[in-house]
Amino acid sequence: MFPEEPKQQDWRSEVKEKMKEVGPGGSIKELRVYTLIEGELYRRLPGGILSRCINKKEGKLRLEELHS
Asked: CA 20 to 30 Å from 30, out of 16, 43, 50, 61?
């Protein structure tokens, strides 16, 4: 009934793939702030805090909820 949106590549999948290529002891500088926990991607913030990475659609939804 409704046309489907074209499937966009999620930026998190690119990071996950790079992490798999490098392996657990990876040395790529840009990946050192990311970690995978049970398949979910997290970014390590200063102080060791883990922040779950979300896609653009979920981010937009959360911003709308926050501002309402």
From this structure: 61
